[in-house]
Write a sequence for this structure.
C-alpha cells in the first residue's frame, strides 16, 4: 500500500519500552501514530520517536511515571489532538496481526464516516495465540470517525466504552488484534488498581441506592453466576493448547466479586447520606 492510511493511531504509554516496539512495528502504513506518555522512566519515548511517532505528555507535569485517573478523559484528549478524523485506539501492549493494516486500509478507503470498525482480540500466552477461551475472541470497537458523532461514554474512568446509535455500520476485521497476556498475578494487580479508581469515583460523585440495588444486588451476582457456569461448561476445552488457561478466566469472577464487596462496603459505611456515599 503506497498511500498512508488516513487514520491516527493513538496510544497511551507508561514505562512501555518492553512491549512498544512490537506495537509500533505494524503501524508504519498509518498516517499518524500519536503517543501520549506518562513521563516514562525507561526509554519508551526514544523508541516511539525511532518509529516516527509523535509524542506528547499526558499531563502538564514533570512528575515521573504519572498514573492516569480517568482513561476516558485521556482518550478524548488524544482524539482532540489527532491529525486525522479516523481514530484507532490501541494499548501499548497490543499489536496488529500481519495483514491487518492492509485490511484496515481497504475498509477506510471506502467507509462512510458513520462506520465503526471492530477487531477480534486474542491473547498470546507462552508464544501461542489462544484462539479459544471463555471470553475470547472478544470483538471490540476500535476505529471510529470523530466527525460522525460516535464518542466514549462519560464517567467510565476505566474500561472505556463506545457510544453510537443504530445508524452506524459495524465492520469486523478478519485479522485479529493480538496482545501478550500478563501473568495472573500481574493482571490481578491491575484489576485492583482499577477497582480503587472506581471506588474513588463513587465516593466523589455519589451512588444512588436505586442504582446500587439495580446494578450491585442484581447485576453483579448474575454476572458472577454466569461466569462461573461458563467456566464449568467450558472446562473440557482447557486441556487443549490453544485455549486460555482457567486461572485467567477465574480472574474475571474475582474482579466482579471484589467490585461487589467494595461498593457494598462503601454504601453501608455511609448509610445517612440520602443514598449516596
Amino acid at each position: 500500500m503506497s498511500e498512508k492510511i488516513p487514520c491516527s493511531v493513538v496510544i497511551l504509554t507508561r514505562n512501555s519500552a518492553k512491549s512498544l516496539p512490537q506495537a509500533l512495528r505494524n503501524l508504519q502504513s498509518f498516517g499518524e501514530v500519536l503517543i501520549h506518555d506518562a513521563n516514562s522512566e525507561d526509554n519508551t519515548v526514544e523508541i516511539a520517536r525511532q518509529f516516527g511517532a509523535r509524542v506528547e505528555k499526558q499531563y502538564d507535569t514533570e512528575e515521573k511515571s504519572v498514573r492516569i485517573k480517568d482513561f476516558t478523559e485521556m482518550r478524548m484528549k488524544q482524539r482532540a489532538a489527532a491529525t486525522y478524523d479516523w481514530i484507532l485506539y490501541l494499548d501499548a501492549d497490543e499489536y496488529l496481526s500481519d495483514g491487518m493494516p492492509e485490511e484496515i486500509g481497504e475498509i477506510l478507503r471506502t467507509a462512510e464516516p458513520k462506520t465503526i470498525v471492530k477487531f477480534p482480540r486474542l491473547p498470546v500466552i507462552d508464544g501461542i495465540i489462544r484462539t479459544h477461551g471463555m471470553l475470547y475472541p472478544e470483538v471490540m470497537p476500535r476505529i471510529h470517525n470523530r466527525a460522525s458523532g460516535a464518542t466514549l461514554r462519560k464517567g467510565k474512568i476505566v474500561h472505556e466504552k463506545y457510544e453510537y446509535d443504530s445508524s452506524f455500520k459495524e465492520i469486523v476485521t478478519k485479522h485479529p488484534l493480538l496482545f501478550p497476556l500478563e501473568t495472573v498475578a500481574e493482571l490481578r494487580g491491575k484489576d485492583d488498581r482499577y477497582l480503587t479508581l472506581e471506588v474513588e469515583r463513587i465516593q466523589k460523585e455519589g451512588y444512588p441506592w436505586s442504582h446500587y440495588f439495580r446494578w450491585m444486588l442484581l447485576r453483579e451476582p448474575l454476572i458472577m453466576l454466569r461466569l462461573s457456569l461458563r467456566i464449568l461448561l467450558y472446562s473440557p476445552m482447557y486441556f487443549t493448547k490453544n485455549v486460555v488457561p482457567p486461572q485467567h478466566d477465574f480472574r474475571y469472577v474475582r474482579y466482579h466479586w471484589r467490585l461487589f464487596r467494595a461498593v457494598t462496603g462503601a454504601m453501608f459505611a455511609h448509610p445517612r447520606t440520602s443514598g449516596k456515599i
About this structure: Residues 184-269 form one domain.
